[in-house]
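From the pipeline queue, job 12 of 40. The input is one protein chain; the requested action is below.

Action: predict structure.
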Amino acid sequence: MTTIMPQGELLRRAVKWIDEQRTLTGDPVPALINKAAMNFNLSPKDADFLVGFFKEREASPRD
């Protein structure tokens, strides 16, 4: 049986998964985004969002 996810839930899960995998494996973000797109069945538009999200997050200074 398929569970219906609220809009955006898959993206939230993908962001969390990418963060966890970066810590565990040290793999580069672009490779993890590709894996997340496959694992979470994301659209190309969602994958592009993730690229921009992580690029912006890397560029912003952390407090």
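Job complete. Residues 33 and 46 are 10 Å apart (CA to CA).
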